[in-house]
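Z., the sequence and structure:
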Amino acid sequence: MMANGVNVVDVADPTDPRLDDFRDLNSIDRRPDLPTGKGLVIAEGVLVVQRMLPSRFTARALLGTDRRLGELAADLDGLDAPFYRVTAEVMADVVGFHLNRGVLASASRPAELTVPRVIDGATTVAVLEGVNDHENLGSVFRNAAGLGVDAVVFGSGCADPLYRRAVRVSMGHALLVPFAKANDWPADLKLLRAAEFRVLAMTPDPTAPSLADAMTGLSGQRVAILVGAEGPGLQEHTMRSSDLRVRIPMSRGTDSLNVATAAALAFYERDRQPAEVGPVTAS
């Protein structure tokens, strides 16, 4: 039925196949957001669903309680995708656990963007290598969205940015900040150089110039910030492909920070510098 412009379908049976987009979300080998399976993108919670709706990830179905339907009604007005209204108990049976956030949305994965497309018109790009923790990855996207980063490029060894946990921790920004995977790593850094980006590699090396000093000298230039895995950091051959190695000055014998925190500091130092290279045109 249509309720206030929303296609609402009441479902009482947790085995109903129309709910399969949301089934077994915690299953290691059956969850619907596995790229090798159904390959869906799952948005969890009101805010993340709200950010999915205007993104390039077109919602195909929603599952939620009547309370969450009321909170999302204005956002869903005119949406073709059905909202399957269920009780909290039915929802728990379907997804495999009790979901406090009370609403989910599914979307098919669109065609992947390319590195040239996501860096076209960008002034600041985050480049990740070996970031294989979904929560760190989600935090990097949230930090990128809040601190002026235009796009994210993935080198080797990174986790899936569209895994449900990564999307949730990003507060939905993994669906809004453009990203692309490098096809040839780290050789694809040459694409950034060809686009006149200065490529900065984050390192704990105490002989490297400080992040703040390096960023001050790059005001008005395009900048790509390379961040490596927590623990091992960037590979040596990746750092050799950069223009400059930079560090965050540390104290009390600490050699490094959590990868998402380190990235946030780099993004902040970049964001507070004057931008003089023109507007971003890519999306």
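The radius of gyration is 21 Å. Residues 220 and 229 are 28 Å apart (CA to CA).

Let me know what you think.
H.
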